[in-house]
Design brief:
279 residues; alpha/beta; two-stranded antiparallel sheet; globular
Length: 279
């Protein structure tokens, strides 16, 4: 099992290129960055975590720009979105960004994505909460056409375009892995239909063995080989015993949280957790 981190790449936090170098030097496998294009001032949608929305949600860099800086400063570190809000992104433009980043990084990109929770944020992008997962599905399928076809076209209910040319193509074949976030049975059905992996969040009661079994059962029911599906756990605990239980359960990657602290405080946290990554 590989151990990486996730981070909200903010304008006031550690510079993302420096963070990437520090992670690679300490043996971490990957850096995944979070995304919010903006936060509506109405605050009509309550924060799922309860209380006030943390400052970092409205201060994030664009994830693909941030990861490009991380890629330029490293050679081995895997680079991921955790998560990309594809319901708020044009699929043709995003397919180009993904392919460019994958090529320029030497095939190191992983696309974690999700439907999003902030209703007014997605509405500002012309997306609707009640159809967001239909939109997500079609945008993923459309991007896969662009990544894998010389002449790509897609004709769906919500995404529609005639044949196009779009290069570069990703270095990874057939394309970078797509991981879908969420924990419901609906999520698992979507994962086995059109993704390469599952991206659940670790909660206080998270049982890695039981959750891996859920994924495998969903794959088998759909006629898909469970071994073809990755499992990356978001906000995994920085605890050696629990991470060992993840390894034994068949989790492929665990992401520890880089806290919203100062540069020096973050580097101290990375030093503290580095033995977990090297293990």
């Amino acid at each position: 099992m590989r151990v990486g981190v996730f981070y909200f790449p903010t304008d006031y936090g550690i510079e993302v290129g420096e963070l990437a170098v520090a992670l690679e030097e300490r043996g971490y496998e990957s850096l995944f960055v979070c995304e919010h294009t903006h936060i509506p001032t109405s605050r009509r949608t309550p924060f799922p975590g309860g209380g006030e929305l943390p400052k970092r949600y409205s201060h994030t860099h664009d994830p693909f720009v941030a990861l490009a800086f991380a890629a330029a400063r490293t050679t081995r570190l895997r680079l991921g979105t955790g998560i990309c809000l594809i319901t708020q992104r044009d699929p043709i433009v995003t397919a180009k960004a993904v392919a460019s980043l994958d090529m320029l990084s030497g095939g190191r990109f992983v696309m974690g994505l999700g439907g999003g929770w902030n209703v007014d944020e997605m509405e500002n992008h012309g997306a609707r909460y009640d159809t967001r997962f239909r939109l997500l599905r079609e945008r993923v399928l459309a991007m896969k056409e662009i990544w894998t076809k010389e002449e790509a076209e897609f004709h769906g209910e919500l995404v529609n375009f005639d044949p196009i040319w779009s290069w570069p193509k990703p270095v990874q074949r057939p394309h970078p892995p797509v991981l879908l976030g969420g924990e419901t049975d609906h999520t698992l059905r979507r994962v086995v239909e059109f993704c390469e992996g599952w991206f659940p969040r670790a909660t206080a009661t998270f049982d890695a063995k039981a959750q891996r079994a859920r994924l495998d059962a969903a794959a088998t029911a759909a006629g898909r080989d469970p071994r073809s599906l990755q499992m990356t756990v978001f906000r995994a605990p920085a605890d050696a015993a629990k991470l060992q239980s993840y390894r034994e359960a068949g989790v492929d990657r665990a992401l520890l949280e880089v806290p919203d602290l100062t540069r020096d405080e973050i580097l101290r946290v990375l030093d503290q957790h580095a033995p977990l990554a090297r293990a």
